[in-house]
TrEMBL record:
InterPro entries: Transp_IS110-like_N, Transpos_IS110, Transposase_20. PANTHER family: PUTATIVE TRANSPOSASE FOR IS117-RELATED, TRANSPOSASE FOR INSERTION SEQUENCE ELEMENT IS1111A. It comes from the Bacteria. Pfam families: DEDD_Tnp_IS110 (PF01548), Transposase_20 (PF02371). Residues 6-145 form the Transposase IS110-like N-terminal domain. GO terms for biological process: DNA transposition. Residues 186-213 form a coiled coil. This is Transposase IS116/IS110/IS902 family protein.
């Protein structure tokens, strides 16, 4: 049975729906209020529903799947190519309707537990960003009064008491008190970040897949938990190579007339997970006492950063293989291409 294709442009209060009625051939493009949205699809036959992977999309996708519909979440950049005229809700819904009928890699619909893990990662990332901003702000403010402190958190913590004592006689107390509060606020941010990491470690004790990924060199608590939650269903990807390409750890291709040029990595997909993998690969190269033969050969003929990205690509493929085949990590494992 052919499914009715539906494009939905979701928003906070009004959802724009676009589809063609199979019985009458009428083009339907109408807004539906949030309270009536699920009711509209409750008594319909199974549909293929396309939505942009934006805020709230995962929630609505789970609800629609429970009703028996098929849901395909697509990146906004993929959908944008199908909106050729004005930018409004009706045009966006039509563009999504066109995009969902094209072949392309869908974004996995995640469970609430997987989204909870990713939420912890996003909040931790935000706190780290705030902490970095606050450190840089203190450096900049003190420079205005001739107090130059070395880079990094350790240099700031070491110099701050001395600097505050030195400038106490020539600057107003209201500024000194504020600087001291901002400096002490860094410890509060440290505590919040550490608490989130503790909760992630507690969650990993109950998740076998995340514990298995921890055995991979360069994969820690953050990378393992983020990978499990981001991938969702491994069946979305046909191979580890496809997963690595989805993250953006493969060369970007440009060319014409049969001549293809390879450039830097494409940087597509999940920026956060790609960053974790690259940092993990860099730590392996920096701290490994005996690098593998593959790494040693790569370092002889390629720059360091290229080797880092190549190792991150290899780590991504390994992560997918362990999750897809439910295996444990083996250092000397050699993959064999099926006949």
């Amino acid at each position: 049975m052919k499914l009715t294709t539906v494009g939905i442009d979701i928003a906070k209060n009004v959802m724009q729906v676009h589809y063609i009625d199979i019985e009458t051939g009428e083009i339907v493009n109408k807004p539906i209020k949030r309270a009536k949205f699920l009711e509209h699809f409750a008594n319909r036959e199974s549909c293929l529903i396309g939505m942009e992977a934006c805020g709230g999309a995962q929630h609505w996708a789970r609800q629609l799947i429970l009703m028996g519909h098929q849901v395909k979440l697509m990146p906004a950049k993929f959908v944008k190519a199908f909106n050729v005229r004005n930018k409004n809700d009706a045009a966006d819904a039509r563009a999504i309707w066109l995009a969902v009928q094209q072949p392309g890699k869908a974004i996995a619909v995640k469970t609430e537990a997987q989204q909870a893990v990713l939420a912890l990662h996003r909040m931790r990332q935000q706190l780290v960003k705030f902490r970095t901003m606050q450190i840089n702000g203190l450096h900049g403010l003190l420079t205005e009064y001739g107090e130059v402190i070395g880079k990094g958190r350790a240099a700031l913590d070491k110099a701050m008491p001395i600097v505050l004592e030195r400038i106490a006689d020539r600057l107003p107390s209201m500024l000194l008190d504020t600087l001291r509060e901002q400096w002490n606020g860094l410890k509060q941010l440290d505590a919040q970040i550490a608490e989130i990491e503790r909760r992630l470690r507690e969650w990993m004790k109950e998740d076998k897949a995340a514990k298995a990924l921890m055995e991979i060199p360069g994969v820690g608590v953050l990378t393992a938990s983020a990978a499990v939650a981001t991938i969702g269903d491994t069946k979305v990807f046909k191979s580890g190579r496809e997963f690595a390409a989805w993250i953006g750890l493969v060369p970007k291709q440009t060319g014409s007339g049969g001549k293809v040029k390879l450039q830097g990595i494409s940087k597509r997909g999940d920026v956060y997970l790609r960053t974790l993998l690259i940092h993990g690969a860099r730590s392996v190269l920096a701290h490994a006492k005996q690098p593998s033969l593959w790494v040693e050969q790569m370092l002889k003929r390629r720059p360091l950063n290229v080797v880092v990205v190549a190792l991150a690509n290899k780590m991504a493929r390994t992560i997918w293989a362990l999750l897809a085949h439910n295996r444990l990590y083996q250092t000397d494992y050699v993959s064999v291409k099926p006949a």
